[in-house]
Structures are given as C-alpha cells and as structure tokens.
Amino acid sequence: MTATSPTLKSNLSIVLASARMRLATISRYPGQLLMDIFIPIVFAAMPILLGRATAGPDAGENFAQNTGTSNYVAYMLIGSAAFTIVTYAFWHIAYWLRWEQETGTLEALYLSPTHRVWVAGGTALYSCLRSLFSASAAFLIGSKILGVNPFEGGVGLAFLFILSGLIPIYGLALLFGALVIKVKEANALINLMQWGVSFLMGIFFPIAMFPPLLRAIALLFPPTWMTNGVRSALLGLTYFFQEWYLDLAVLWAFALIAPLLGYWVFTRAETSIRRNEGVGQF
Amino acid sequence: MTGTVRVENLSKTYQVRQRKGLFKSFRSTVEALKGVTLEVRPGEIFGLLGPNGAGKTTLIKILTTLLLPSSGEAWVNGFHVQRQENQVRASVGCMLMGERGLYWKLTGRENLEYFGALYHLSPQDRRQRALEILERIQLGEIADRTVETYSSGQKMKLAFGKALINDAPLLVLDEPTNTLDVPSASELRAVVRDLHAQGKTIIYTTHIMSEAETLCDRVAIIDHGQLLALGSIEELKDSLRRDQVTRIEGVIPSRAVAAVKRLPNVQQATRTSADSGDLLTIVTSDGHEFLPQLIEALTQTGATIKKIAPEEVTLEDVFIAKTGRTLAEDTRER
Question: Has residue B203 been placed in a domain?
C-alpha cells in the first residue's frame, strides 16, 4: 500500500487539497465570483437610500442619536459586509454537505480514512478566502460608490475582530451542517437562518434598540460581537465592554467553545445517520 | 478464521418512513441483513449475487464502514469495522456509487489527486499514482477535461480508477461494468484479472451471471438479507444435479407456469423472455421422471412447446433454485 498513516502534515495537506478543489470548482463559474461582490453593496444600498428618502438631510444626525456615529453609510456597509462573511460560512458548510450528499460524493468521502473535520476545515478555508475577498471588495467598492472613506479608524483592529470571529462562526456552521445532513434539507433552513442571523447581529441597526431579552439572545451570538467590534474599530463607536480587548476576549471564548460544540454535534449526527440509513440517502 | 474479510452473524435493521399520500407517513422496520456469516479468503475474487434489495449493498456498506451493524461483528484486513474504522478505510479501495462518486466540475486528474490526498498520499505520490491509473484505465488523453464532458462509460472507468488510488489489498467493486459497452467492460474485467493476479482480494457484485461465472473464484448468493448459498462456482453447480434442470422454449402462458409450479417435486419454475418466445427454466428434485407430467400440464394449459431439453447447470440455475427468480428479471424490474 502506498497510503500512509495520517499525520498532522498529511491532515493539513487534506485541508489545502479540499480548499483548492473547491476553489477550482468555483473558478469554473466566474460570474458567481463577480456577483459575490455586488450583492452586499446592493443589500446595503437599500436601507441607505431608504434612510436618505425618509430622513432627508438630517439622516446622519438622527442616526447618530441612536448609534453614536452619523456615518450611517459606512455603518450599513460594514454590517452588510460582515453579514456576507457570516452567511457564506453557513451557506458554504451546509450547502457543501448537502451538495456532496446529493451528488454521491459524501459517501466517497466517508469511504476514505480522512476525518470529515479536516475536509470541513478545507471547506471553511475556501469559504473564508471567498467571503473575505467578497466582503472586502464590496466594502471598498461600496465606499467608493456611496462616497465614504473606507480607511478611517483602526483597520488593523477591525481585521483582528474579523479573524477572531471566523473561528466561532465556522464552529456554529458545522453545528448547522449537522442539522442539514440529519434533516436532509439545506435551502429552506439556510434561508430561514440567515434572516434570523441578520436580525440578531444587527446588520443595519445597533442591538441596543432591542428589548432586553432579545438583546441578551443577540449577545450569545458570536457574529454580533464581531460586527460590533469591526464597527467600533472603524467608526470609533463604543465597545460592548468599553475596551476593545475585552470584546475581543469574548470572541476568543466563543472561538474555544463553538468549534467544540459544532464538532460534538456533528459527530453525534454522523453516528446517528450511520446507525440508520447511511449518509448516502438524500 | 484468517480471511481477508470475516463476517460473523451480521444483522442490520433500520427504520424507514413509508409515505401515504401527501402528508401521511408511518415508520416501519426493515431487516436488511439477518445473521450473515461468511469469509472472503485472501487473494480471491468473491462474487456477491442477489436481487435488488437482497441485502448485498447493506453488507458492503457495513464492511466499508458506511453503515453500523445492528448486531454481529466483521473484520476487514484484520481490522474491526466498528473499532478500527480508519484502518479499514485505508486498507480498502471502493467503487460503490459508480459515476455518482465523482466531482463532475473537476477534471479526471484532479479527481484522482484529490482522492489521493484523502488517503494521505503525499502530493508527489498522488500525482504519480493518478498518472499510472489514468494510463491503466486508458483515460490519459482526456485526463484534463472536466468529468461532466465524459461519456457514461468513461465516468465508470474513472470511478473504477478512483478505487485504485490507495493501492489497497482489498477492492470492493459494486457492478463496475454497469453502463460500459462490451469492449470497455471486457477491458475492465482484464484489469480486474490483472489486479487479482497481483494478489489483490476482490469483492465483486454483478447482475451479469456470465461475468460472475468467468471472473469469480467463489460466490455468495444473498436474498431477503440471508445467505442462501456460498461456494466455488463448481461447488454451487454440483449442488444441483445435471438432470435437475430442464429448459423449455415455446409460448408459455402464465397459467401454464402456475400449473408447472403445482407439480410435485418442482422446486422452481421461472419464465423469461427468449428470442423465440418464452423460456421456462424448471428445477426439480427428482430428475426427469416427471417429464410426462410436465408435458401434460403444459399442453393442457395452452402452452406451445418448441423445444424441451435437460441442460447443463449454470450459475443462473443455481441462482433460480436458491432465490426463485432470475437475476436478469430482477434487474429489469428496477
């Protein structure tokens, strides 16, 4: 046999091979990559134009009373870009599993001696690259179109919040993926989930506007902290815990818990499926 | 036992949801395997025959760790299928889903290299192995085209090539010649024989009896989740005496088949289509002493007999005797 025993190096090689395979696949749909950039801009433009239409020249002043910044254009662009990162994580992990289940390649993955978490890692890496590219390009192009400066504030700190937020978000996406392979449905679940997520993470408004119970629920959700951190870093808003490092510490705590939770639920779902009909049935 | 594959009293039951109309459904239990025990010896081609739904795919899925058994145990290459899953997976090359197990937006080469990575081959090894396999299965010229542009037969060949990527000592091939044209199927069987000659153990399922007869060292017949027969082709044929099989060609209506089935000592009577009309294969337990009764039963029920002859026992006859139907008939019902 030329197959070797798994090592950390060979498992990392699988992560890279899996990411590369998915990049090769999407490269055969170039139009989709272009659409990825413009969807967040269009998504943010709608509330921005609605704000201008309803509040007129006082829009910025009114917005500042509730959020602490009059730059509502950048505020919403950041929200939309952050939402792109979050929703791509859920779409790519859940849809990856569903797509492989439907095309028959999921069984082929389960026939190999690679643990699915490494393949999921590759999918997550691909998803990160794609969503970071799309979100960054959308933010830069959207800023240019809508006339705001994308580089004011702490860009480096904002990027740190994004990177720290990615780990718990992909952990939750794996948990969501377990639900998808169990109920054998992706589209309806993701559609439902993404509206709930966009609402809870406050993509167009501060969660301070929520009633207390809803605000508490929103704070249990890592994307809420990531989005607020990025906004605070770029627009000089107040952090949830006043200091940036405390908010970042919360994200790191999520980064420890969420992947473990996702892994645990995913492996339990796998075992349950293998006890019954198997992963190939869709 | 020292087999490459050991299966001891393996059973599998699972729940299925049966639909009734748009909104009603109820759960029922399916017994896919019922206490199967068998052994696959090192270096043999082991045929697994059975109608659709017989339990052979369930057995293969348990052996390849895709499903967990409800009870019983199994070992593959000395590794326990539940306790040493990754070792089992690393030591088996599988072709289970035909062309469905491929990434159609990737090229043939990219597919093989990706699966090589999943088997922990180094980047150099997977490139080299993919190259060797593409040459072996004669897809080298189209290796850099996306799989979606391949013909059905080329996809099947690539799926077969994927099973070779880890150079495993055991190959599990589920109907590998399905959808292949005659020359391609012949080429693939030649590769299987070549792999067998190199010492690989092969579990081979097929719907084509002649393929099983020419390729397999031993055969297991499974139906309704139970192992009905196991042995070499000759052993299985010997289990039916030569004069126990009679074939009748002609026009044979259903009521004639029913009348034959009612005759004493008739074990099985199966009608299939033949070029000249119908072909009735009868397995009896008392030789040809019943021929006068048989002819009378047929003529009285409106059958027209063109030819009646005792035949040499084939694997198909064994299959009919054990399961009560032909494999070809079952395949058409799919």
Answer: yes
Distance (Å) from the alpha carbon of B99 to chain A's nearest alpha carbon: 9
What number of C-beta contacts closer than 8 Å exist between A and B?
117
Regarding whether B86 and B141 lie in a shared domain, the answer is yes
CATH number at residue B306: 3.30.70.920
CB contact under 8 A, B102 and A105: yes
Rounded to the nearest angstrom, the minimum Cα separation between B297 and chain A is 46
What's the total number of domains in chain B? Answer: 2
ipTM for the predicted complex: 0.86
B98 in the same domain as B61: yes
Q: Which of A18, A112, A271 to mutate to test the interface with B (most CBs of B within 10 A)?
A: A112
Residue A196, chain B, CB below 8 Å: the answer is no
Which of B60, B61, B118 to substitute to test the interface with A, most A CBs within 10 Å?
Answer: B118
Yes or no, beta carbons of B120 and A6 under 8 Å apart: yes
Instruction: Give me the domain span that covers residue B84.
Output: 5-237
Q: What is the 3-state secondary structure (H, E, C) of A187-221?
A: HHHHHHHHHHHHHHCCCCCCHHHCCHHHHHHHHCC
Residues contacting residue B207 through CB under 8 Å, at least 6 positions apart: B175, B178, B327, B328, B330, B331
Of B181, B203, B237, which residue is a domain's last? B237
Return the ∠ at Cα A166 (arms to A220 and A117), rounded to 5°: 100
pLDDT (tens digit, 0 to 9) for every residue of chain A, 282 residues total? 445 678 889 899 999 999 999 999 999 888 888 888 888 888 888 888 888 888 777 888 888 888 888 898 999 999 999 999 999 998 899 888 888 888 889 999 999 999 989 999 999 999 999 999 999 999 999 999 988 888 888 999 999 999 999 999 999 999 988 888 888 777 788 888 888 888 999 989 889 889 999 999 999 999 999 999 999 999 999 999 999 999 999 999 999 999 999 999 999 998 888 887 777 665
B/e letters for A6-19, b = 16+ CB within 10 Å, e = fewer, are beeebeebbbebbb
Interstrand relation of B45-49 and B201-205 (parallel, antiparallel or unpaired):
parallel
B172 shares its domain with B251: no
Is residue B321 domain-resident? Answer: no
Q: Are residues B190 and B283 in the same domain?
A: no
| In a domain? residue B322 | no
Question: Are the beta carbons of A3 and B167 separated by less than 8 Å?
Answer: yes
Which residues in chain B are contacts of A12 at CB distance < 8 A? none
CATH assignment of the domain containing B192: 3.40.50.300
Q: Is the pTM of this model over 0.80?
A: yes
